[in-house]
Write a structure and sequence with these properties.
The chain has 175 residues and is of the alpha/beta class. It is 38% helix and 20% strand. Strands 1, 2, 3, 4, 5 and 6 form a 6-stranded parallel beta sheet that branches. The relative contact order is 0.21.
């Protein structure tokens, strides 16, 4: 099985989750992990599972304005004009049978805070024709710039491992 993990990250937290997801998938699949800017520059390989993730900004996917605001909080270079939102808007629809997963990072407190990049990514993937292998997953950070909440990287690895195993089983039974 081949998987592609595409992520957007401002402060490194979503990138860490993407890497943890890749580690979990690698137990059952060949995995490539790419930043959304890189993903926009290279043709998408044929994959059995597309995994897409980004940070929650202003209750949903980042926008150029929220990325500009995030850039003020870090010295790290941040792509302002291209994020997961724009990458998915430019993506072509896929034929039935293509599978995907959506994940995001969001602030842990207050727990009632609405909005999720993962949910928005999931909706956009379904609109493109992907069938989601699981419900969109949120991984929690303690504050806007992080760090990730304790145990979230382990949770991301376990989720991905479970999803890879499930997808391999699905593929075996549909072959």
């Amino acid at each position: 099985m081949r998987a592609l993990v595409v992520y957007e990250s401002m402060f490194g937290n979503t990138a860490k989750v993407a890497e943890a997801i890749a580690q979990g998938l690698r137990e059952h699949a060949e995995v490539e992990v790419v930043n959304v800017v890189t993903a926009g520059e290279v043709p998408a390989p044929t994959v059995n599972l597309l995994v897409v993730g980004g940070p929650t900004h202003a209750f949903g996917l980042s926008r150029p304005r929220t990325r500009r605001d995030a850039a003020k909080l870090t010295d790290a270079p941040i792509a302002i004009d291209l994020g997961i939102r724009e990458w998915l808007e430019a993506a072509l629809p896929v034929a039935a049978g293509h599978r995907a997963l959506a994940f995001g990072t969001k602030i842990a407190k207050p727990p009632w805070l609405p909005g999720s990049a993962a949910s928005g990514i999931g909706k956009r993937l379904r609109h493109l024709g992907y069938s989601l292998a699981d419900q969109p997953a949120d991984f929690l950070v303690e504050d806007t710039t992080g760090p990730l909440s304790e145990g979230e990287l382990d949770r991301a690895r376990a989720w991905a491992c479970r999803m890879a195993f499930t997808e391999l089983d699905r593929i075996a039974h549909h072959a």
